[in-house]
Amino acid sequence: VTLIGIVLSVLIAFLAGRILTRRLAVIQQVADNVNAGNSDSAQRVVLAGDDEAARLATQFNGMLDSLAERKAAYFAQNQRSMQEINDKVVELDRVNSELEGKNKEMESMIYTASHDLRSPLVNIQGFSQRLEKAVTDINTRLAQDDVPEKVRTDLARTLNERIPSALGFIKASSLKMDMLINGLLRLSRAGRAQLTIEPLDMTLVLRAVVDSLAIQAHQAGATIRVDPLPACLGDSTQINQVFSNLIDNAIKYRDPARPLEVHITGSSDGQRARYEVTDTGLGIAEKFQPRVWELFHRLDPNGPIPGEGLGLTMVQRILARHGGGITLASSPGKGSCFTVELPAAFLKEKPQ
Amino acid sequence: MTKANEITVLIADDDDGHAMLIQEQLEDVGLHNKILRFRDGAEVLDFFSGTGGERHREPGAPYLLLLDIRMPKVDGVEVLRHMKGHDELRTIPVIMLTTTDDPHEVAECYALGCNSYVTKPVSFVAFSEVVKRLGLFISVIAVTPSGSLIHQS
């Protein structure tokens, strides 16, 4: 009996164990499905009864319920964040196109204004020339024998000093104004020009710039060195203009006390390319440094160096359109260093 | 063949000063052609179509048009477009006058078929150069059989 009892209880235990294992396997199956992520989140363990497995199943289902709830909350939050980001992008796009529109409007206003301003200047200059010619005509007539000497001497000062000097001022001023207006026109043209952005071999670009300035550099006794430069993305004409302006400035504002050296170096971190134009020129005092970018600003407007105070304004605007920038470091008596930053590029093949 | 002095020079410019300067400079370089002045593009078109009253085109007579671009009512580019699209008017030489040398504008005018393009200059030397070239241009057209155009850039 005892043996039978033992065998029976072992058998019962064995059977109960098998039943429990099978019931647990149901939970296991759902858990595996949930883990593998290939079940929909609504899947639950269905286990009738009142044993441990059923209780475990209920707890397990409760856990799944709370997981699903958290997941849903997370998705909702995510959705809201995405919506917010989308809204911000739309808003940014709107502000951007509004700014672009304003910019275009301003460029076209500058263009029209310059056009219209130039028209009266043609008259001021043209009629000054006519008056000059009239003075010559009067002088020719006065030189003839039938004119009394007294009339000739009375008119001499007016005809030969006062009128020519007045005309001189009118002409010089209108020429100056013409130069400024042309500057504005060039600026607005540079701002409206279509950019053709492509990878640029900057070593070649700088070689072309230095070649085009060779005569000025030679006359100034300047040495210009160009290191091997990393490539960047830009419009070749406008980037050429940027470096032409910078090197031309270096030549113009050289220090007569020592020979001018201009050194162009570059580096790239793969994202941004940087180019330094370093010179041994006059240098710019710190308080004037922020003003060099201003339209028509010149260090010494009445000095001997010609120009319209447009070069650096143009440089800054061109670089801004390229998503680049420029900074200045300078100390008087030592020289200046302009650092140009542009989006980096990789050239497919290195030209020889 | 047409003689240079038989050409009537048409000046279309809304600015009185500019028109007078052009006229006087033409005289200075020895051109004493008949000159007619127009204040806007509409007046020019009226002249050519004969709807402008007493001033109208004489069929077969030689003309040279100096055409300002920025004018009220009908601008110079419109006048040019109309003329170059018109069988009888397309052979009349047209020189565009402007206060800027905007490359887009220049390209547009040449594309439409203007014969030359002159930027109104402010400096004395440049202005006489332009007018001398105009004078030369007029005498060159004069010995060219009508219908064939000289392209001067």
Protein model, in words:
The complex is a heterodimer of chains A (352) and B (153). Chain A has seven helices and seven strands; from the N terminus they run H-H-H-E-H-H-E-E-H-E-E-H-E-E. Chain A has 352 residues and is of the alpha+beta class. In chain A, the strands form two sheets. Chain A has a five-stranded mixed beta sheet with strand order 2-4-5-7-6, covered by helices on one side. Chain A is elongated. With 153 residues, chain B is α/β, with parallel strands linked by helices. In chain B, 39% of the residues lie in helices and 16% in strands. Chain B is built from five helices and five strands. Chain B has helices at residues 16-28, 41-49, 76-84, 103-112, 124-142; strands at 8-12, 35-38, 63-68, 94-98, 116-119. Chain B has a five-stranded parallel beta sheet, with helices on both faces. In chain B, helix 2 packs parallel to helix 3. The two termini of chain B are 24 Å apart. In chain B, 35% of the residues are buried. At the A-B interface, helix 2 and helix 3 of A face helix 1 of B.
Q: What order do the helices and strands come in, and which of them pair?
A:
The complex is a heterodimer of chains A (352) and B (153).
Chain A: H1 2-36, H2 52-142, H3 149-192, E1 197-200, H4 202-212, H5 214-220, E2 223-226, E3 232-235, H6 236-252, E4 261-268, E5 272-279, H7 311-321, E6 325-331, E7 335-343
Chain B: E1 8-12, H1 16-28, E2 35-38, H2 41-49, E3 63-68, H3 76-84, E4 94-98, H4 103-112, E5 116-119, H5 124-142
Parallel strand pairs in B: 1-2, 1-3, 3-4, 4-5
Key terms:
heterodimer; A: 352 residues; alpha+beta; five-stranded mixed beta sheet; two-stranded antiparallel sheet; 7 helices; 7 strands; B: 153 residues; alpha/beta; five-stranded parallel beta sheet; globular; disordered C terminus
